[in-house]
Amino acid sequence: MSPYTPLLWMGQEWAASTPFCYFTDHPEEIGRQVTEGRRDEFRHFSAFADPSRRERIPDPQDPGTFARSKLCWDELQRPPHSQMKEFYREMLRLRPRVAGPDEHFQVQPVGERALAMRRGSGDDTVLLIVNFGDRLALSLGDLPITTTWTEGGWKLALVSELPRFGGIGSVRFEKGILLMGPGAVVLRP
What we know:
Number of strands: 8
Mean pLDDT: 87
CATH class of the largest domain: Mainly Beta
Distance between the termini: 15 Å
Number of helices: 4
């Protein structure tokens, strides 16, 4: 929903189970230096301060590192991967097509564990509300970024928690939004 080009990488759009590890295929001496350099680079992170933990960082030169990074294309045919891909399709379908001086883009925190984002102009506007917490009860009139659209109201366009996306349908929408756990909703004027 951001104004930038969506960048989906290595099966992200279907929640691929495979990691995307850094891998190389250099001649032996350069490869050894790359492996040592990579592990040395991670020493600055607290999770890898212990040298024994740095040794567990996948060796970029190991053919197994490359093999583990290969996508499992058959995942696309079964849940939850097929459901996640459908969710991404819907998000892209709803994405505003405007990009210019009349486009509005606003983000606002909603409490401590949620945010609201409005993007677009005119009828090609979306309001995205994302809840990262356990429960969110929100009146749309309480959000400054919705005030210019409240006269016509908002209609629900997408709910991340629908069963077709792998969710449990834990949202209510009337004059406000009630999310019973983490999730997102997209509304249109």
